[in-house]
Write a structure and sequence with these properties.
Distance between the termini: 42 Å
Largest sheet: 6 strands, parallel
Shape: globular
Radius of gyration: 20 Å
CATH architecture of the largest domain: Up-down Bundle
Structural class: alpha/beta
Number of helices: 15
Order of helices and strands: EEHHEHHEHEEEEHHHHHHHHHH
Number of domains: 2
CATH topology of the largest domain: Dehydroquinate synthase-like, alpha domain
Helix content: 40-55%
Strand order of the largest sheet: 1-8-5-4-2-3
C-alpha cells in the first residue's frame, strides 16, 4: 500500500489573495532578515487583514535547533492558529519544527520520524510561501536542521509536518538573485532526477519528476539571461514544487547524501553542493537506473541534450555557470582531504543511501568524493 501526500497548492498570479479566505486570527510569520528588508513579508501581510501577527525574521541560512527554539516561549504565549513561512528551504524547514514544537511541547525535535504518530493540528495549521524555486520544502514532509554539536545536518521526516497549504505566487520570486536562481534550480533538477530513480519511486512520483524536468530545464537557462521574464519564473517555480512532490513521495538519493555532508562540513550552498555530485552519481547509478535516465534525457531540449543524461546534466550546469567541482568552491584541498573520513561517514548515514538505485559502499562514497574534487 502506497500513499501520495501533497499540501493544497495555490499557484499563479495573485495567489497570495488566498490568505484572505482563511479567516486567520493569529499568525506567526517565519522569515529571515533579507526577505523582510526586501519588502516580501509586507506583500504577505497585505493579505492578512485583521490578523494579529508575531513576526520571527532571524532564521539563518543553516538553522540550528537551538537558534530557532529560542522563540518557543513567545510563540506559546501568542497562541497562533497558523504558522506562515515566507522564505526559502531553511525558513520553511524551521517553521515546520516550530509548528511541531508548539503542537507537541512534550516531545523533542528528533521525535519527528515517520514511525511516531504526532497528532498535530490540535491548535494550528501550517502555510508555506516559498521565495526561492528549488528546495520543494513547501511540498515535502521533511525538514533539515543543522546539529551544531555534531557538525552535521539532521534529516527529520513525518507526514504530519507537511504544510497544509503551499502558495506559489510568481511575484515572490521575481527578484530572486542570479546565484540563488541557479542554485535552487539545480537543487530542483536533482530532486526530480533522484525522485524518479529512487528505489521507492512510483507512478505518481514519476509523473511529477517528468513534468518538473519538462518545465525547469527549458526555462532555467533562458531565465538566467532574462531574469525579468515572469512566465519563465513561473515555469521554474511550479516545476520546483513538482520536483519536491516527486522526491517527497519517493525519497532522495546519493547526490543529496553527499551534498548534505559537504554542506554541513564546509557550509557550501545546498543547491551548489548537490549539483557538484549529481553528474558523478548519475554515472555511478547508470547500471541500475540507465533506462529511467535515458527516458528523462529524452525530455531535455536537443540543444542541451547529450547522448546520456550524465552528458546532458554537465552541459546544462555549464550553461548555467554552475560549479561542478569541489575545488571550484574555494575549499582548501588540505582541509578537504583531512576531513574526508568525516565527509564519508556523514554521507553514509543519510537516508539517501537506502533509497539510491545502486548500492553504495563506503569505498564507493570515498571514490565519489575524490572524483568530484
Amino acid at each position: 500500500m502506497w500513499f501520495f501526500r501533497s499540501p493544497q497548492i495555490i499557484f499563479g498570479d495573485e495567489s497570495l489573495g488566498f490568505l484572505e479566505s482563511l479567516s486567520i486570527k493569529r499568525a506567526v510569520i517565519v522569515s529571515d532578515k533579507n526577505i523582510r528588508k526586501a519588502g516580501i513579508v509586507d506583500l504577505v501581510i497585505k493579505n492578512l487583514h485583521g490578523t494579529e501577527l508575531l513576526i520571527i525574521d532571524d532564521i539563518p541560512e543553516e538553522p540550528e535547533y537551538r537558534a530557532i527554539a529560542k522563540h518557543l516561549d513567545e510563540i506559546n504565549q501568542f497562541k497562533p492558529d497558523y504558522f506562515i513561512s515566507v522564505g526559502g528551504g531553511s525558513v520553511i524547514d524551521s517553521s515546520k519544527i516550530l509548528f511541531f514544537k508548539y503542537e507537541r511541547p512534550d516531545l523533542e525535535f528528533y521525535d519527528v520520524t515517520p514511525l511516531v504518530k504526532l497528532n498535530l493540528r490540535q491548535k494550528s495549521k501550517l502555510i508555506s510561501i516559498p521565495t526561492t524555486s528549488g528546495t520543494g520544502s513547501e511540498c515535502t514532509w521533511a525538514a533539515v536542521i543543522s546539529d551544531e554539536m555534531e557538525n552535521r545536518k539532521d534529516e527529520l521526516a513525518s507526514p504530519e509536518i507537511m504544510p497544509d497549504y503551499a502558495i506559489l505566487d510568481p511575484q515572490m520570486v521575481k527578484s530572486l538573485p542570479k546565484t540563488q536562481t541557479i542554485n535552487t534550480a539545480t537543487d530542483a533538477i536533482t530532486h526530480a532526477i533522484e525522485g524518479y530513480t529512487s528505489r521507492w519511486n512510483n507512478p505518481y512520483s514519476d509523473a511529477m519528476a517528468e513534468k518538473a524536468i519538462e518545465l525547469i530545464i527549458p526555462s532555467i537557462v533562458k531565465l538566467v539571461k532574462d531574469p525579468e521574464n515572469l512566465e519563465l519564473r513561473n515555469n521554474v517555480h511550479i516545476g520546483a514544487s513538482m520536483a519536491g512532490l516527486s522526491f517527497s513521495n519517493s525519497q532522495i538519493g546519493l547526490a543529496h547524501a553527499l551534498g548534505h555532508s559537504l554542506g554541513a562540513m564546509f557550509h557550501v550552498a545546498h543547491g551548489k553542493s548537490v549539483g557538484i555530485f549529481l553528474p558523478g552519481v548519475i554515472k555511478f547509478n547508470y547500471a541500475a537506473a540507465g533506462e529511467k535516465y535515458q527516458r528523462l534525457n529524452l525530455l531535455i531540449p536537443e540543444m542541451y541534450r547529450g547522448k546520456t543524461l550524465y552528458e546532458s546534466i554537465v552541459i546544462i550546469l555549464k550553461a548555467l555557470g554552475q560549479t561542478i567541482r569541489i575545488s571550484e568552491t574555494g575549499i582548501d584541498e588540505k582541509a578537504f582531504r583531512n576531513n574526508l573520513d568525516k565527509l564519508v561517514s556523514l554521507a553514509s548515514e543519510s537516508t539517501g543511501i537506502v533509497t539510491n538505485p545502486a548500492d553504495a559502499s563506503r569505498d564507493d562514497i570515498t571514490r565519489l568524493f575524490l572524483d568530484s574534487w
